[in-house]
Specification:
By secondary structure, this protein is an alpha/beta fold. It has seven helices and twelve strands. The strands form two sheets. A seven-stranded parallel β-sheet has the order 3-2-1-4-5-6-12, sandwiched between helices. Strands 8-9-7-10-11 form a five-stranded mixed β-sheet, covered by helices on one side. The longest helix is centred in the middle third of the chain and has 17 residues, at 114-130. The radius of gyration is 19 Å and the shape is elongated.
Length: 253
């Protein structure tokens, strides 16, 4: 049995993970961590790490950047593999993930959907084939309650493209203040916020007389929750290091 500590247990994604776990065998949420300690999923929820007494095999974090440092410190202190799903982390917090991975198995992905990570793989292949002849634009859409913009996934797509091509692209987030023609080294990144859009990412390759679009849409938060649970099962017993969704996908191939 894999015992999960679910950080952000009473948030929307925490509740989605709670539901997703019910569809897996040999895994359970042993305890939760949240500033709100109401028990909604049949497991104890703590607001102080020192109070956690349950045996924990892996930690899933769907909380908030403001409490991330305490979560990763707890994982390191107790040698617990960590699945970091929280978005909007600062550069310093990302560096802390890399530092922790020297002694701890850490799984970090900007998006826990297997479909999105497949999109990234396809986009990188397309970018390599089409570079220098096609302009690249990334459009992401999310609900009106999302705090960070552009999304971590949009930036991850742009970073993956940068690694795939033989030039160094410039990320352009806004064009209204500069009146000039588009440079062919640019990657445009655009954020849309509205309604209850769960998550949509499109990558446009615009060439002469043709446009190629690669797109992923999430209909519910469950796709991210399922990915997190699969990552938890994947990470139990792993050696220290920094892991990502591509490692999980490769193992399933």
């Amino acid at each position: 049995m894999t015992n999960i500590l679910l950080c952000g247990a009473n948030g929307h994604m925490g509740q989605a993970v709670t539901r997703a776990v019910q569809n897996f065998q040999d895994v359970q949420i042993a305890a939760g961590y949240d500033i709100n300690t109401i028990q909604k999923g049949g497991f104890p929820v703590y607001d102080n790490f020192a109070d956690i007494k349950e045996k924990i095999d892996v930690l899933i974090d769907f909380s908030h950047p403001a409490i991330f440092d305490g979560i990763i410190d707890y994982a390191c202190a107790h040698d617990i593999p960590a699945i970091i799903c929280t978005t909007g982390l600062s550069a310093d917090q990302r560096s802390k993930i890399e530092y922790a991975s020297r002694t701890l198995p850490v799984f970090f992905s900007a998006n826990m959907s297997i479909g999105v990570n497949l999109l990234i793989d396809l986009v990188c292949k397309a970018a390599k084939i089409l570079e220098h002849n096609f302009d690249i634009e990334i459009i992401e859409k999310h609900h009106n309650q999302k705090l960070d913009a552009p999304s971590g996934t949009a930036l991850a797509i742009a970073d993956a493209i940068t690694d795939a091509v033989d030039f160094h692209p410039e990320y352009i987030y806004d064009r209204h203040s500069v009146r000039k023609k588009r440079d062919n080294r640019e990657i445009g990144i655009h954020a849309v916020r509205g309604g209850t859009i769960v998550g949509e990412h499109s990558v446009l390759f615009a060439g002469t007389d043709e446009v190629i679009e690669i797109k992923h849409s999430a209909a519910s938060k469950e796709v991210f929750a399922v990915g997190a649970v699969k990552a938890a099962l994947f990470m139990k017993g792993r050696k220290p290091g920094l892991y990502a969704m591509k490692d999980l996908i490769q193992e399933q191939e």
